[in-house]
Design a protein that fits this description.
- The structure holds 2 protein chains of 2 kinds.
- By secondary structure, chain A is mostly helical.
- Chain A has 8 helices and no strands.
- The longest helix of chain A is centred in the middle third of the chain and has 34 residues.
- Chain A is flat.
- By secondary structure, chain B is an alpha/beta fold.
- Chain B has 15 helices and 10 strands.
- In chain B, the strands form 2 sheets. A 6-stranded parallel β-sheet of chain B has the order 7-6-5-8-9-10, sandwiched between helices. Chain B has a 4-stranded antiparallel β-sheet with strand order 2-3-1-4, sandwiched between helices.
- In chain B, a hairpin with a 3-residue loop joins β2 and β3.
- The radius of gyration of chain B is 33 Å and the shape is elongated.
- The chains are: A mainly alpha, B alpha/beta.
- Chains A and B meet through α5 and α6 of A and α7 and α12 of B.
Chain lengths: 266, 433
């Protein structure tokens, strides 16, 4: 099963790449169908492994990777069904595949003391990961925005203008994904602190990951502030969401480089 | 009815390549005239099938009949009557056979257009074909030609980028606007100045459904005149900066000798616009918009020279794509005739099989008579055996005949028929020749 899903994701990526190079609509459609099948199989495999809150696979890194891959797939499919920027697949599908590969190649090692397993933890993890998924999409739209804006502003037409969505569409999608991401991140942080209060006895512990996440929260909060109050739009906010996502990566993986703290398991 | 004969097709016409505008204008098909003209051509010249294609760049008569060269003079006469003056021979071209097919394919695929790759021509050919079809002037021969021509046009469009990049300054401006704003139907524009270029651009933006156009000009009368034509709204020049806060696209084509919009103007406007992007198109000489204004965030400034440069590159690209397209047309012309030849030998092969089968049945009958009473299963086995022998003997030559015919060599089919066909049938065919 593991390798069937892998094969389907690889085929999907292949067709997205064919579309990238040959620009035929049919490739996009086939790639999308493969992606949907892969997503459904992957999701059912994931759900089949859960029979209680404590078996929800977010207590170890391979589970988190797999879950991220599923959520990203789901959100991206929803966007594409609504007809929004199918070319985002050039970036999204490789990441879905990459995270899936990491998840199946890492051991499923439960690194979590059973006492800490309460219902709140999977909720905290799900909300946070969903937030990261939206931040990834805001990053992807920002990249396309910067590419298209460079095209238009500096009058270099390396890419056919028509293949990338318009600046206004990309900008508004970037804004919406940040709004969603910010909401989920905030909820994730709240549930995380409540959980922490329940099992450790304190809401906030100045653990390195907590600090990084707080920084992240402040960065996206200023994105929203600058956009709504100061009137930042377009390139500046696109750059902000690229920086934001780099911070997400540090919070998500780089945390492993700093030892200690409560999030040691992940 | 006989099958398609290569020598029966003729294209007689004139286009922007061969004749001046006044000749073409005189010959352009007027509305409501097409049916009458088709009827006239068909009855007075005794043609089997006919399509008349008329656009502002070409007028062509596509004729299918025996010895089509005989009707050229007749068409010229009809055209002279319509034009009201004598026509010069060198303004017209005649294509026969393979050249005619190639010409029809090229025209339909927009390879012979004044603006290479422009998409309208395919639709124009289609409607000419349909009006002929409706009035019954199309038989299976021209139907074959035109349906193939539409297929070829589709192939060219799908497999090459010939129609992809805009080939005029105004359509390039519209494409840029769409790359910035997406759908233009909720966007507004200001046009400063009332020059001819400005008017062309107004038309292209309106064709993409832009919601509102303000026109501002020193001479208010001209602005009012344009407004009444394009249902725009006059904006007094003193309100220009207020207007810049509201609209998304600014088109500047005035004759002012200095900048009308400076970098500082734009900076102030952008503050009020809360960062919403604005697209400035300066098609005036000397420039009316300070080039520095294009450096402000979310401001996209294009001067006419920038647009012209892009268009020149696009046209170069189109020419490159045209080479690919010509190869597709050539390939399709080949295929067209291969198919025609193959279709031709089909009935011949069928006749041979029929003859062989009738011989087989006759012989079988005699055999059964001779053998007298034999049980049914054995009778069946003998019959099957005879069928198989005939089929197997004829299979190889029949396949070979088809294959050779596909490559334009029908003589083998004749030989096949002469060797295996019914005798009296062959004689009657020879007499017919």
């Amino acid at each position: 099963m593991k390798f069937i899903i892998l094969g389907i994701y690889v085929s999907s990526l292949l067709f997205y790449l064919l579309h990238l190079f040959f620009n035929r609509r049919i490739f996009l459609k086939i790639g999308f169908i493969f992606l949907c099948i892969g997503f459904l199989l992957h999701t059912s495999k994931f759900l089949a492994g859960i029979n209680s809150p404590s078996s929800f696979p977010v207590y170890y890194i391979s589970g988190v990777m797999s879950f991220f891959s599923i959520l990203l797939g789901g959100v991206f499919i929803a966007y594409q069904i609504r007809g929004i920027v199918p070319v985002l697949g050039y970036i999204t599908v490789p990441v879905i595949l990459l995270f899936y590969i990491i998840s199946i190649s890492l051991p499923q090692r439960p690194g979590f003391p059973p006492v800490l397993k309460t219902v709140l933890f999977p909720i905290h993890a799900t909300l946070s990961i969903t937030g990261y998924v939206f931040f990834f999409l805001s990053f992807a739209t920002a990249l396309f925005y910067l590419l298209q804006e460079r095209n238009i502003k500096f009058k270099i037409f390396k890419w056919s203008l028509k293949r990338i969505p318009s600046l206004v569409e990309l900008d508004s999608m970037n804004y919406r994904t940040v709004q969603f991401g910010f909401t989920f991140l905030t909820l994730g942080m709240l549930t995380g602190s409540i959980w922490s209060e329940r099992v450790w006895g304190s809401l906030w512990n100045w653990d390195p990951k907590e600090v990084l996440t707080l920084l992240l929260w402040l960065l996206y909060a200023s994105y929203l502030h600058l956009r709504l109050i100061v009137g930042w739009k377009g390139r500046k906010t696109a750059i902000l969401s690229v920086i934001g996502f780099i911070l997400v990566l540090i919070a998500f993986f780089g945390r492993k480089l700093i030892p200690g703290g409560y999030h040691d398991f992940f | 009815m006989t099958s398609f004969e290569e020598e029966n097709i003729l294209v007689h016409g004139t286009s922007f390549r061969t004749s001046p505008l006044d000749v073409r204008e005189a010959l352009t098909l007027k509305k409501s005239e097409d049916e009458k003209l088709l009827y006239k051509v068909k009855t007075t010249l005794d043609v089997d099938e006919c399509v008349i294609l008329s656009t502002c760049n070409r007028v062509e008569f596509i004729i299918y009949r025996n010895h089509p060269e005989e009707v050229i003079d007749g068409i010229v006469k009809i055209n002279e009557e319509r034009a009201g003056f004598p026509l010069q021979k060198e303004h017209f071209y005649n294509f026969f056979g393979r050249d005619a097919i190639r010409h029809i394919f090229r025209v339909t695929a927009s390879l012979d257009s004044m603006v290479l790759g422009e998409p309208q021509i395919t639709g124009q050919v289609k409607s000419a074909y349909e009006s002929s079809l409706k009035t019954g002037f199309i038989g299976k021969n021209l139907r074959k030609v035109f349906e193939r021509a539409f297929f070829v046009a589709k192939r060219v469009r799908n497999e090459t980028a010939i129609g992809e990049n805009p080939n005029s300054v105004s359509s390039q401006a519209v494409e840029l606007a769409e790359s910035i704003f997406g759908d233009l139907s909720r966007r507004k524009a200001i046009v400063i100045g009332t020059g001819e270029m400005g008017e062309i651009a107004i038309k292209s933006f309106l064709s993409r459904g832009i919601s509102k156009i303000y026109i501002t000009s020193r001479t208010i009368e001209r602005a009012e005149e344009l407004c009444s034509i394009y249902s725009g709204e006059v904006l007094p020049f003193k309100d220009l900066y207020r207007g810049l806060e509201e609209v998304d696209i600014v088109l500047c084509s005035s004759a002012a000798p200095h900048y009308l919009i400076t970098k500082d103007d734009i900076k102030n406007v952008m503050k009020k616009r809360m960062g919403n992007p604005i697209f400035l198109i300066d098609i005036s000489l000397p420039r009316n918009i300070d080039p520095e204004a294009g450096k402000v965030d979310n401001v996209y400034l294009y001067h006419i020279d920038d647009l012209q440069q892009i268009v020149d590159k696009n046209i170069k690209k189109r020419r490159e794509e045209a080479i690919k397209s010509e190869a597709i047309v050539e390939e399709e012309v080949e295929k067209f005739f291969k198919r025609i030849n193959e279709e031709k030998v089909g009935p011949v092969i069928a006749r041979v099989y029929e003859t062989a089968d009738s011989i087989r049945r006759k012989e079988l009958e005699e055999l059964f008579k001779m053998l007298g009473n034999i049980p049914e299963p054995q009778k069946k086995a003998i019959e099957d055996f005879s069928v198989n022998v005939v089929k197997k003997i004829l299979h190889k030559p029949a396949t070979k005949v088809k294959e050779v015919a596909r490559n334009g060599e029908p003589s083998l089919a004749e030989a096949f028929f002469a060797l295996f066909g019914e005798e009296d049938e062959i004689e009657s065919r020879n007499e017919g020749k």
